[in-house]
Design brief:
Blueprint: H1 2-22, H2 29-32, H3 39-44, H4 52-56, E1 62-69, H5 72-80, H6 85-88, E2 91-107, H7 112-124, E3 130-131, E4 141-146, H8 149-161, E5 167-184, H9 186-200, E6 206-211
Antiparallel strand pairs: 1-5, 1-6, 2-4, 2-5, 3-4
């Protein structure tokens, strides 16, 4: 009878301490729970698609401009070769650009009869020249037009040795050039730029890719 009472006491003690050992889920859950990853860390380890606009702080389309192209025909041919030209709204811009002036060696303007007489005399000497018939230098005699200032100065010195009253002046000039412009989402814009550059076959003077005006972008925190 005493043995039975002793066994019952042991059983009671075991029942009292068993929940602390097993934990609410049973087994070794209390020991293992400290090494389980948190839910947040499980989510952050999954792959995530990142839009270009999000990655660069841009939330809208990009406006693109490429130039310069030497002729309207070449510019339109580049547009025609792009399968997505209509979707991206490709346009050809015509721009009048002011270029660095040329260097002009000439005999300054004179009264018309004097200029004609000197011009004929210069022509008889076999000197390459022409009579300017319009503009602010009307009735001047042109002795050469040069991109290189050094070349112009060399010719100027030669004409002075020939006793010609020549001077060096700037000759302003403009040039009509062409550019392509279009609008697309940032990732597509980059792809279209690469396609146009490959089709053009040489380097553009500039390639502009920027957020389109009027498209809001997230403000950066200081």
């Amino acid at each position: 009878m005493r043995w039975l009472a002793f066994v019952l006491v042991l059983v009671s003690i075991g029942i009292y301490y068993l929940p602390d050992f097993a934990g609410p889920s049973g087994g070794m859950a209390k020991v293992a729970s400290g090494s389980l990853p948190r839910v947040a860390s499980l989510k952050s380890s999954e792959p995530r698609n990142v839009e270009v606009g999000e990655a660069t702080g841009q939330s809208g389309p990009s406006c693109v401009r490429l130039g310069w192209i030497e002729s309207a025909e070449r510019a339109h041919r580049l547009v025609d070769n792009q399968p997505l030209a209509e979707e991206a709204g490709f346009t050809v811009e015509e721009v009048e650009r002011e270029l660095p002036p040329l260097h002009w060696v000439l005999i300054p303007p004179q009264p018309e009869d004097v200029a004609l007489r000197q011009f004929r005399d210069i022509q008889r000497q076999g000197i390459d020249s022409y009579l300017v018939t319009e503009g602010e230098n009307r009735n001047a005699i042109s002795l050469g037009l040069f991109e290189s200032r050094e070349s112009a100065i060399s010719v100027l010195e030669e004409k002075k040795r020939q006793n010609l009253n020549a001077v060096l002046v700037n000759f302003p000039r403009n040039q009509i050039s062409y550019a392509l412009s279009f609008e697309a989402e940032p990732e597509l814009a980059e792809e279209l730029v690469q396609a146009v550059k490959a089709d053009y076959g040489s380097n553009f003077d500039f390639v502009e890719i920027r957020p389109c005006e009027g498209v809001a972008t997230p403000e950066k925190n200081p």
